[in-house]
Structures are given as structure tokens and as C-alpha cells.
């Protein structure tokens, strides 16, 4: 992983943060002596749930990218007046995956912790749930222009 500035990189990818710790779904960063140090995710984290969050997040990205390629392909192949249903299906799958990842993380991790807050990546995950759902509905209702 490349770092432009360690503080910015660590804070931007955080799903959970405290003043001296930043955790994402892949690793934990600890602030020691003014520098962020990489550590493994603690062993007390439920590994099965963490793997589901990781896999769902990766699948959501894959389905979004595939949806973009399918949209471009459908733009040139479907007859005029037809809907972009196949693209909508990929967006629906992406929405389902990111919804699963964000929901599991919200329900399982950090709910009993009094100190700390959710980081930018966690918030962006929930924003992407909304935007992906809107995109899905748009593709299901969108028709190729007749003119």
C-alpha cells in the first residue's frame, strides 16, 4: 500500500476510529509516537463475520464495475425502446452486497464500545447503499431512446 501522508490515508479508510486507533475491514492502525503502525485485526473479532463483510464489499465493487460494462454493451446492442434490465440486475446485486456488508458491520462490530466513532469508509458504505439502490431503480426504469 502506498501512503501519500500517513494520517490522511489511515483516517480515510477507517470503518472505526478512536484518538489512537483506526480500524478498517482489512487491518488496524495504532498511533505510536506520532506515527501510525500497521497491526493485524484483533483475534477477538468474529472472523466469519469479518470475512463476510470483506467478501461482500469486494463483490459489490465487482458487480458495479460489471454493471458499467454491461451498460455500455447494452447501449449498442439492445433495440430502441427496451429497458436496461440486465444492467439493473448487476446494480441490484451490488446493492445487495454492500447492504449485507454495512449491515453486518453495524450489527456485529463495535456496538458495545463507548469510546470511538465510525469512520469515513463506514459512512461512505451506507451512502453507497442508497446511491446503488437509486442506480438500480434508474436502470430498471430507463429505456433506450427511440430517436
From TrEMBL:
Q: Which organism is it from?
A: Cyprinus carpio
- The yes or no answer to whether the keyword Transmembrane helix is present is yes
Could you tell me the superkingdom of the organism this chain comes from? Eukaryota
Q: Name one GO cellular component term.
A: plasma membrane
Compartments annotated for it: namely: Membrane
Q: Which UniProt keywords apply?
A: Membrane, Transmembrane, Transmembrane helix
Q: Does the keyword Transmembrane helix apply?
A: yes
Family as reported in the entry's similarity comment:
Belongs to the PMP-22/EMP/MP20 family.
TM region(s), chain numbering: 52-72, 84-105, 117-142
Q: What is this protein called?
A: Epithelial membrane protein 1
Q: How does it sit in the membrane?
A: Multi-pass membrane protein
Which Pfam families does the UniProt entry name for this protein?
PMP22_Claudin (PF00822)
